[in-house]
Amino acid sequence: MSAVSLFAKNIVDVNFNALPNNVVTETKKQILDTLGVIVAGSMSKNIRQLVDLVKEWGGEEESTILGYGGKVPCVNAALINGWSAAVLDYDDFHDLDFIHSSREVIPASLAVAERKGGVSGKDFIVAVVLGSDLAYRMARAVIVHRESGFLTVPNFFGVAAAVSKLLGLDEAKLKNALGLALMQVSGESYGIREALNTKGLDNGFQARGGVLAALMAERGLSGPTDPIEGRGFGFYALFHKNLYNSALLTVDLGKVFENAKVSQKPYPGCRFNHAAVSATLALVNEYDIKADDVAEITVHVGPIAISLSQPLEEKRKPRNSIHTQHSMPWSIANAVVYRKLGIEHFTEEAIRDTKVLEMAQKVVPKLNPELVHLTSAEPAIVDIKTKSGRVYSRRVDNAPGSPEDPMSFSDVVEKFRYCCNYSAKPVSEDIQDEVIGMIERLEEVPDVAQIASLLG
Fold first, then answer.
1. What is the 3-state secondary structure (H, E, C) of 181-192?
2. Domains recognised in the chain with CATH numbers
3. pLDDT, tens digit (0-9, with 9 covering 90-100), for 230-262
4. How far apart are CA 358 and CA 243, in angstroms?
5. Residue 372: which of 301, 276, 310, 269 has the closest Cα?
6. Alpha helices in 117-234 (DSSP H)
7. Which of 163, 250, 286, 455 has its CA 20 to 30 Å from the CA of residue 424?
């Protein structure tokens, strides 16, 4: 049986009772975390421009624009909320499979759940788990994908799978949904490399595209019969020259769910900065190192993280807020100057901070090929040399938030409350409490549309 057929059968067959307790627990954390970063992302002026455009289009009032309020057609809510989830680069990440999926699967699923109505918390959890699991498996099967850049295309399939589950599609229609998802894939994003103000918009497109695919399949429209492994025109043929490990696609399918291994981010910005940031914060706080006393900061990192410091002079002086998210010198400098790293350090106003710019000039990245981690983000070693000549050193092997050093539900709650401070529309403490309580007891919630209404 082909992988797409196995996936379709698994998505149709799996129900809430089949999910291990740890998968349910992790999924709740991912949902609350993602809702928080969506609400915080609504503060972006670029999101505001898209909201204005979508509202000009009009249409049925089906799904909530989180952080703003008001309802629009569910495909457009998925587009906006999917981009909002990615715009701050504060959302979770699968370190091993090298892909973000919550940022698409969760807002898209919530938008469709609102449109449909009556979607229980149990059913919502199952849809998120199965959609994410499909995307992670497709990403993992790609050979040398870390060297080829971030994978985004599998999220079209993940969203289509999650939404198809919510819509109750049978195996034939579900396969059509996956096929229709393939027909609208966009490929890799240039937003990071060129620091575009539309960085992350491809995630909105993925959320919208997967929703659109499932809705079209629900109406009986057909797609390619094997969009995953199809010869010549399947996902792996089109995007990866058929260089993939087919065994990794479906091993333990329905028994092991990959979203249980996702890492939450304690800081905004690229995941591969986080080990170095954690080491830096540990040093400055433990030894009370003052910014004025720092002579040089040497950051030893692996081959992926080193790219976040190249070209060095450009990364020491980011040209816009998007550029800061993928600048190691910028993140390290903020950690030294402010002894923390938050949303406020990645704004258009922040890039003019002279204290941080001066500190960034003291950050010296060095490649250490031995600092490679196959199951999570790369380790880092940070040496801070003071003007007195003393050197303080710290190594972090597991970036915080990883399965090896996880954020607790309480940690995610704290992050959610912090994110709510940046919402385009204020989110009161009472509403925060209500949302947190509903996510904590999500399997008891009769209709998840209530959650969207609270954040709109």
1. HHCCCCCCCCHH
2. 3-264+407-454 (1.10.4100.10), 271-396 (3.30.1330.120)
3. 988 898 888 888 889 999 999 999 999 999 999
4. 45
5. 301
6. 121-141, 145-148, 154-167, 171-182, 191-194, 201-218
7. 163
